[in-house]
Amino acid sequence: xxxxxxxxxYKDFVGRYKAxxxxxxxxxxxxxxxxxxxxxxxxxxxxxxxxxxxxxxKTKVFLNDKINRVxxxxxxxxxxxxxxxxxxxxx
Length: 91
Known about the structure:
Layout: E1 6-9, H1 10-17, H2 34-44, E2 54-56, E3 60-63, H3 65-90
Antiparallel strand pairs: 1-3, 2-3
C-alpha cells in the first residue's frame, strides 16, 4: 500500500507508545515537547530499513501499515509483560 494511512498527533503518538520508549529518552521529562520526543523515538527505533515507513508533519506523524504493525506488536508484548504478572498476583 502506498502512502501513510495511519496518522497520529504527536501527543497521541507519545501517549500510545510511551511504554516502548527508553527511560533515557526525552520522554523521561514530563514537560518535553511531543514532537521532540517522537523524533527521538524514531531515531532510536530498531527497525531495519526505516526509509519511507514514516513521515513527520507539522502537527502529526504519518505511518505506513508496516511500521504500525511493528509498533503495535512491540507495544502488545510490553503490555503483556506488565499485565500478566499483575493478573497472576491477583488470582
